[in-house]
Amino acid sequence: MTAHDREHEPEPEPEIETDPETTETGTENESERSGDTDSGPILVPNRILETDAIEPGVVSLLSRASVVLLGYHELPEQTPPGQARLQFEDRAQNRLDELAESLELAGATVETRLVFTHDREQTLNRVADETNCVATLLPNPSMRLEDVLVPLRGERSVERVAGLVGNLLAGLDVSVTLYHLERGDERASAAVLERGRKVLTGRGVDPELIETRTETSRTPVRAIVRTAEEFDAVVMGESDPGVMTFVFGQTAAEVAERFRGPVLVVRRRGDEDGPADDPTVPVERSEDSTE
Question: What is the number of structural domains in the chain?
Fold first, then answer.
């Protein structure tokens, strides 16, 4: 049995941005989380008072995952979170429990968080950090899960991104297309895709379900979104962990905004140096910004 507990967030420390007026209810699953960087929990945020159900395609994607299901309600600046909790908590908690049950019935392990906050982005970042989430899902509607697009940048992203995809989809009848934006070096592109294939098969994905695709484009975000229209979901690496946009980096946020299906963004490890895992860098992106 899991237990509910309520707590007020502590006053913010100088080096940590927190919302001192956030009121939170948490339900934590008793099972231990894996320490592997590609098999930790996935953050699934939901506007809890506006979400009726998690679509079947999203449930299928998360059926083998450890999930932190974050139900949040963003408040007007003048509304105290405590007041909102008194007004909405029972309704919100019931809805959150229903969403969690749908994931658990599919096989997922679920921890729930209920938050009333003035700052959505800050709250999502904080919860992702506190729970050591390896990825964040934008749960756009998806009625089915038959094929997944996985844009890769380079060797650094392969282990994390393809590894998580393998953990989620091993044994399922879901095809995976590894996608790479070529930068004039066909051998390097082929090496990235081949490494991704090996990671997937090593995690138990049927080799017959794995395809690869390369493309050259000066408008990479547009290219990814255009390609994604053929698929039910997208899994990609975080673009810029230093400048978050709704937990996602800039490129991932743009893809999530334009693609109508679910987008799973694999977070960058804190010990990684060098440029962020943006599958579009260093291809010129100026033409994308005109859309």
Answer: 2
